[in-house]
Design goal:
By secondary structure, the chain is an alpha/beta fold. The chain is built from 17 helices and 9 strands. The chain folds into 2 domains: 279 residues, TIM Barrel (Alpha-Beta Barrel), CATH 3.20.20; 148 residues, no CATH class. Strand 7, helix 14 and strand 8 form a beta-alpha-beta unit.
């Protein structure tokens, strides 16, 4: 008799989550070669992420929005023209078919039309706050929660999110601040209708319906690409995106200046809010992963690097809550990939404190030799090919950088050749091709 989920070890839970991913169940491969490549790519990536030795070093290209430019478009075009985005990523996929171990679609190209409809405040995007020629969007950091609103967030985060944060970050939701507390909508037949007596509330919900319809159009095009890329033999790893709990407060609520002051002026309130965010985040990430049978959650880490906070502050405010989230995911059989933006050389003695083969670290500007020595026996490591080199360097220079990284980090397995961050502005497509050439030439075990 099959064990119940609660009876499984974390390793058994992981294998159940990975079953379809490994087998390719449900994928209609375009031919036998595509199916063969799919299984080779899955095996290579999983062995590296589990700190095992694959046939050779796997490669993750730092593409960002480059496929749009390769196809003759720009970032603004693919934000507004979903078919053009699909065509651009499809063209790149087939032109680089032999040069990639993995390839994702335009899922991180947010819809400019949705942003327009919602009057979204937290980003600027090409033609809306930044120039038409901008190669990505820009996050607009602001104190969306004032210093005296911690108790509101701590005591009722859902109410704060609905009636304060969303109206402040989404122009179309500004009337939501006039809603009564949602708990008052309990049972009485007319109370839920009262807010909709306001014309601005009715108009707000019409905008959200229109935004949902627009997003559905984008998702249809993205799904067409996903099916084609899987049929071509590229694995699609499911799981979702997480955040460090400190970053949830610092990025989305208080802003850098606000949270820096809170560390000194009201540290206990900040810690209490981090605890609330941690529990909510754990539940949400696991629920989302379970809904799609996800096996890996990715985290961009924004404010935990060496330069933002001291080691003592990192130990108190950043690491305990992040580790709690990661540990909870691992216990549910979910692997974790963390993008350590900036430099994390002073944090490495913490980053290996996980069971072997569950955590992958993608480093931006961290010393890779130090990372290999400190955590390479427990965690998969990747990254650190500079975006500046990809954009301005020659293929020979890029390949030489890759060679040095492979020779430093590949011995013993548990290494993925990758960029430090995306290199959308790369001028020479051969700079991407030499990634794979380096892996084959120098990274075969």
């Amino acid at each position: 008799m099959e064990k119940q989920w609660s009876e499984l070890t974390r390793e058994e839970k992981r294998e159940r989550r990975l079953k379809d991913y490994i087998s390719g169940e449900g994928i209609k491969f375009r031919d036998a070669r595509a199916e063969k490549l799919y299984h080779e790519r899955v095996d290579r990536q999983l062995k590296a992420s589990k700190c095992q030795v694959p046939d050779r070093v796997p490669v993750s290209l730092p593409l960002g929005g480059y496929p749009a430019y390769y196809a003759g478009y720009d970032f603004k075009r693919v934000m507004y023209d979903y078919k053009a985005a699909r065509e651009a990523w499809t063209k790149f996929m087939w032109d680089f078919y032999e040069d990639m171990d993995s390839f994702g679609g335009p899922g991180l190209v947010f819809s400019g039309r949705v942003f327009d409809i919602l009057d979204y405040h937290q980003y600027s995007w090409p033609g809306h706050g930044i120039g038409d020629d901008a190669t990505t969007y820009q996050f607009n950091e602001k104190q969306y929660m004032s210093a005296d609103e911690y108790d509101w967030y701590i005591n009722d985060p859902a109410d704060f999110g609905f009636r304060a944060l969303t109206p402040r970050t989404v122009g179309a939701a500004e009337p939501w601040q006039y809603f009564p507390h949602l708990a008052s909508l309990n049972g009485l037949p007319m109370v839920p209708v009262v807010p909709f007596m306001r014309p601005d509330v009715r108009e707000s919900f019409k905008k959200f319906i229109a935004a949902g319809e627009e997003m559905e159009k984008q998702m249809r095009e993205n799904m067409l690409f996903t099916r084609e890329s899987q049929a071509a033999g590229f694995p699609a790893r499911r799981g979702g995106m997480g955040s460090a709990p400190f970053d949830l407060i610092a990025d989305n609520l208080r802003g850098t200046a606000g949270v820096a002051m809170d560390i000194y002026r009201q540290p206990e309130k900040l810690l209490e809010a981090i605890d609330v965010a941690t529990e909510i985040h754990i539940a949400r990430l696991i629920e989302n992963a379970n809904a799609i049978n996800g096996s890996m959650v990715m985290f961009p880490l924004h404010k935990g690097d060496d330069k933002f906070m001291s080691r003592a502050q990192f130990e108190r405010f950043y690491w305990p809550s992040l580790k709690k989230v990661i540990d909870a995911l691992i216990e549910e059989g979910i692997m974790v990939s963390l993008f350590a933006e900036g430099s994390h050389n002073q944090r490495l003695d913490y980053y290996g404190d996980f069971p072997k083969g569950w955590v992958t670290w993608l480093f931006d500007r961290t010393d890779m030799a130090a990372a290999k020595k400190a955590i390479g026996d427990k965690c998969c490591i990747s990254g650190n090919v500079p975006a500046s080199l990809m954009v301005t360097g020659t293929p020979k220079e890029v390949k030489e950088c890759c060679r040095k990284l492979i020779e430093t980090c590949a011995p013993g397995g548990g290494y993925i050749l990758a960029g430090g961050c995306s290199a959308t502005e790369t001028k020479n497509p051969d700079n991407f091709r030499v990634f794979m050439e380096a892996a084959i030439e120098y990274g075969t075990y």
